């Protein structure tokens, strides 16, 4: 008997179901004695032993389905070793569930925080194989995470649609794109959607440079400017502050999000009408794009091979279009940022896109 526990943790994204389907199809094509324990709502299911027995049928017909059939939740890593309010030691509880069910391996699908916890479980002696999910694409050790391309498509579609109304009204539009502390989704959607200004957390912006870019467009006879701003973008001025100073500044003047702060600054310096669009969680919703379906299927298939070979303690990722296994110990706790010196930034600048950093 091969007993596999499976869970999805952290913010959901497209192609989680496609990835799990890949794992299960890969396993049952080689073994007819596979038992699958689907833990509900991420690590919570493992902690409180809340699971469903699943068969390969449960993974049929879900390739195109958004969300996760297992449910998910956020379990902050820093709280993992802190007993919950019922006094339950979460790490011991997870180990207990694993051993009680006599599991051979846990398949864990998640982003950064999830990988830290997965690595901790590996250190505690559990067999773990992970898959990189997140729209943010910020997971170290893989070129691409599934969910990213689908989110880029949705954010791009939002920027596309803004063009006509921005032109009609001769306005400055700010589209705020998800991505947590990194700018991958914004960078790609910004280029794909033809944004004029792209602001990323990795490249703190100077408001005067942003305003210059807007005015330059006006002088060139362009009726509108579209700014794609990452939700984690920061001005040069704020980036120079200490954590404490920044906290104090933010407490004095609260903005709903970065786009509102940016809009106010632009409004103070130009006579342009400024509008804000925030696609928000739509970027994580709906059916995965074709790219993500292929990626998630390939990653899932390779995860099944790793399990059948008994090669545990790894994340299955991609490098240069190839599927690879990366030791979890190398992945955990590291973020993958956009490199401001990357050629994609250079190419974008070459065609006149401003990053507000000059
Ligand atoms: O990590 C994925 C992500 O969508 C980020 O881009 C965003 O900052 C965050 O999750 C939103 O989290 P929540 O779903 O908890 O609001």
From TrEMBL:
HAMAP family in UniProt: Phosphofructokinase_III
PROSITE patterns referenced in this protein's UniProt entry, alphabetically: PHOSPHOFRUCTOKINASE (PS00433)
Binding site for ATP: 11, 74-75, 111-114
Protein keywords: ATP-binding, Cytoplasm, Glycolysis, Kinase, Magnesium, Metal-binding, Nucleotide-binding, Transferase
Record's protein name: ATP-dependent 6-phosphofructokinase
Annotated Phosphofructokinase domain residues: 3-306
InterPro entries found in the cross-reference section: ATP_PFK, ATP_PFK_prok-type, Phosphofructokinase_CS, Phosphofructokinase_dom, Phosphofructokinase_III, PKF_sf
Pathway terms, separated by semicolons: Carbohydrate degradation; glycolysis; D-glyceraldehyde 3-phosphate and glycerone phosphate from D-glucose: step 3/4
One Pfam entry name: PFK
Similarity field: Belongs to the phosphofructokinase type A (PFKA) family. Mixed-substrate PFK group III subfamily.
């Amino acid at each position: 008997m091969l007993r596999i526990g499976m869970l999805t943790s952290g913010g959901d994204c497209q192609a989680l179901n496609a990835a799990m389907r890949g794992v299960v199809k890969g396993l049952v094509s080689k073994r007819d004695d596979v038992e699958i324990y689907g833990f509900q709502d991420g690590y919570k299911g493992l902690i409180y032993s809340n699971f469903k027995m699943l068969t390969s049928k449960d993974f049929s017909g879900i390739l195109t389905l958004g969300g996760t059939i297992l449910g998910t939740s956020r379990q902050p890593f820093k709280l993992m070793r802190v007993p919950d309010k019922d006094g339950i030691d979460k790490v011991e509880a997870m180990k207990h569930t694993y051993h009680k069910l006599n599991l051979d391996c846990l398949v864990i699908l998640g982003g950064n925080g999830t990988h830290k916890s997965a690595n901790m479980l590996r250190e505690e002696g559990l067999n773990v194989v992970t898959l990189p999910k997140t729209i943010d694409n910020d997971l170290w050790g893989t070129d691409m995470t599934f969910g990213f391309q689908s989110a880029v498509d949705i954010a791009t579609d939002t920027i596309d649609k803004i063009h006509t109304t921005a032109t009609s009204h001769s306005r400055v539009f700010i589209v705020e794109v998800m991505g947590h502390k990194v700018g991958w989704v914004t960078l790609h959607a910004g280029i794909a959607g033809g944004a004029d200004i792209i602001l990323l957390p990795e490249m703190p912006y100077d408001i005067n440079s942003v305003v210059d870019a807007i005015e330059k467009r006006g002088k060139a006879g362009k009726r509108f400017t579209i700014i794609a701003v990452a939700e984690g973008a920061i001005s040069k001025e704020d980036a120079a502050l200490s954590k404490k100073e920044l906290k104090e500044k933010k407490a004095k003047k609260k903005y709903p999000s970065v786009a509102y702060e940016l809009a106010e600054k632009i409004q103070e310096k130009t006579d342009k009408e400024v509008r804000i669009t925030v696609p928000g969680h739509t970027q994580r919703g709906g059916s995965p794009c074709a790219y993500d379906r292929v990626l998630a299927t390939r990653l899932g298939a390779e995860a099944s091979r790793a399990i059948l070979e008994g090669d545990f303690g790894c994340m299955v990722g991609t490098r240069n279009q190839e599927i690879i296994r990366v030791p979890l110990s190398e992945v955990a706790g590291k973020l993958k940022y956009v490199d401001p010196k990357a050629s994609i930034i250079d190419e974008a600048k070459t065609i006149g896109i401003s990053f507000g950093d000059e």
